[in-house]
Amino acid sequence: MDRVFLITGASTGIGAATARHAAEAGYRCVLAARSIDKLEALANEVGGIAVRCDVTEWDDQQALVQRALDEYGRIDVAFANAGFGGARGFDKGTPEEWKEMVLTNVLGVAYTIRAAMQALKDNKGHLLLTSSVAGRRALQGSLYSVSKHAVTAMGEAARLDFNDTGVRVTLIEPGMVDTPFFDNPPQIEALQADDIARAVMFAVSQPAHVDVNEILIRPTAQPT
Q1: Which residues carry out catalysis?
Q2: Average pLDDT score over the chain
Q3: What is the pLDDT of residues 67-84, one digit of tens each?
Q4: Residue 207, CB half-sphere, CA atoms under 13 Å: how many?
């Protein structure tokens, strides 16, 4: 039976690049995002399925996992990748934007873990979470950084919760990546989404007894 790779935030950037690499490696892809048009085009490209999913909604996350199980019968990898940022400064943005960011970046990741938990245990699968360099050090005035610190902690909390079940857990912590995440192009030679996708596939391709817990990956020119 083909292995199954579920990805949230899959319509662009790191999620889309990972879908392409996963398909090349022989996975069946279950792709989730709020934007269904781009998602369906990608699903057609990689031979997977597209599922509209708002990761902040528990019912959507349950339906996503159930669709994967109904379609393919299993989940081998779940990549909680959905997230977005905002302007630095505690006087920037709006309270509504803050709320949406925290719900997406933190609660959305936790919902993915909970929804996929049993399926991952059933197949001794692999959970991956997208954190950030910003989840390893505090950035001035950055609620995004705060949210990614929560994801970094969630990765270790999940690893401990899955311990001795055969499920592996990996935090992916990118530095600056040239993706639609940024409003303006990076001023340095940034990482590409494919660079992060290769790191993801490195982690999932290890032998079953090897759990790569964290991959912190920066552009060579990024100073911090």
Answers
A1: 144
A2: 94
A3: 999 999 999 999 999 999
A4: 2
In eight-state DSSP terms, residue 217 is E
Query: Helices 95-102 and 143-162 sit at what angle, rounded to 10 degrees?
Result: 20
DSSP string spanning 11-50?
SSHHHHHHHHHHHHTT-EEEEEES-HHHHHHHHHHHT-EE
Contact 126, 133 (CB under 8 A): no
How far out from the chain centre does Cα 112 lie?
Answer: 10
Q: What's the predicted TM-score (pTM) here? A: 0.94
pLDDT at 1: 75
22: Cα separation from own chain's centroid: 13
Instruction: Tell me the CATH architecture of domain 4-217.
Output: 3-Layer(aba) Sandwich (3.40)
Q: Which residues pair with 4 in a beta bridge?
A: 28
| Sign of the dihedral through C-alpha 35, 167, 209, 70 | negative
Does the pLDDT value for residue 203 go beyond 80? yes
Rounded distance between C-alpha atoms, residue 155 and residue 111, angstroms: 13
SS3 91: coil
pLDDT of the residue at 180 = 60
